[in-house]
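Here is my example:
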Amino acid sequence: MEALRAWRASNLLGFAASRAVTAASAARPLRLRCCSAAAPTTNQKQPPPPPPQDRRRRSTSTSTSDRDSIRAIRLKKVEELRGKGYEPYAYKWDRTHTTKELQEEYTHLENGEVCEEAAVSIAGRIVARRAFGKLVFMTVRDDTGTIQLYCEKDNLTEEQFEQLKAFIDIGDILGASGSIKKTEKGELSLYMKNFEILTKSLLPLPDKYHGLTDVDKRYRQRYVDMIANPEVADVFRTRAKVVSEIRKTMESFGFIEVETPVLQGAAGGAEARPFITYHNSLQRDLYLRIATELHLKRMLVGGLERVYEIGRIFRNEGISARHNPEFTTIEIYEAYSDYESMMNMAEEIVVRCAMATHGKLKVDYQGTEISLERPWRRETMHSLVKEATGIDFNSFGQDVESAKSAARGLPGIKVGSSESTSLQSCSSVGHVLNKVFETFVESTLVQPTFVLDYPVEISPLAKPHRSYAGLTERFELFICGREIGNAFSELTDPIDQRSRFENQIKQHNAKRAARAKVKSTEDQGDEDDYSYEVCLDEDFLTSLEYGMPPASGMGLGIDRLVMLLTNSASIRDVIAFPVLKIQQ
């Protein structure tokens, strides 16, 4: 990308040539024909070298003044092109090949060989340009790769060659046609005979973009990030492949894809702070969904036995490397199965996606090798906490104060710390167990692990465990210390479901009241801010009273799965346009 570091010089020289052409030439088509394979000569008198520039300024990204002046120059070129009768924003271009197809089809050419019978046409963005006297090289990039454009002055009038140098800048989108040549140095090139500016770029590509430390700017201007760093686009190609493979997997098991409402009358299916909007015609508040669960279960009630939905979820909570206010999940529900079935399904989905994207089941994530070979580890939450801390939470029964006291004695939980404050607000032994698990165990689960049998107090939608009182048939899947999936044997008893929902609302309201007493400006946006209201979804409870078959269900985070399979450290790297703070 040598030319990306030298765009200023090329742009300014191009502008000078442009003005000379304007004064001396009449309108003629902006197309070049170069049919000769003659070697370029080098006896042309070279222009004097440009004045020295400030090296310190060159080492930084384009300043606002530079950007504005370059934009003005390029706008002038647009005016000049239109004044000559050419439209610099084309309607279409007929291309015969992609750059990758050309590279593959003509790789057999010998160095210096020209394939005159080839008549090919390509289109793409100019990402580099080099001028050597009577010879101009440009590099074009399309969606599949790059190829060099090769053009000689000897086959053009002086005027045409100067137009080529004057009007084309790095960043322009160009259509080019001609034959194929492999240079003496072995570079496959389109031996250009015709070209047309398809889109005139007004803004320059950033200087030394690969070294840019302003990560926030890369997320805000993802389009520039993708132009300057082609590997960024590969992440989104992988994401598309993952979603496609998930759909193929679900269809192979007989599931059908359904769509459920994004705007809902009650935010249910999870405990999360919703986004609220207002519908003018209905004159009522609506909520952006925080889960697809409750409507998918309604489909089971209606008689569809295997359903899934891939969709956006919206939660008005914190932003971090792991959390974005809108994210993508797949939720799956299967009648007449239990959570053991969903463990097998989770393994199947992840393994198939890994094979589709990597062709193997061992992947590197941030320097750690992750083995996705089956079967994956399966442990209960109680056993993992006991292994990490030595505390057996089964021994406390319903004595929540004894559980809190034992947890506060653990190294790493200090009096007055956020962990200690969270422990104080725990209303049951199950809540204390979960807090200790999140603090001491979660981050250690690097290799794929199913964590089984969660307390009933934190699992309002899961069926009671058939063997252990106080627990539910629920698992969460962890990889690289992150929750990837969450699944249950689904609760189908409508009376039990109503009771749990009511208890969940009481707990939420108690936390809301406690938080209101100590509310401060730091609480805004906190994931533990309980200022929002939680209400019963009466229609869902009504649907259960018509009878839902025994079923299992699972939610799988697609963004986090893509993070794993693309070795991405932040969720912002796998979401094309993540939510960001407003720039000051």
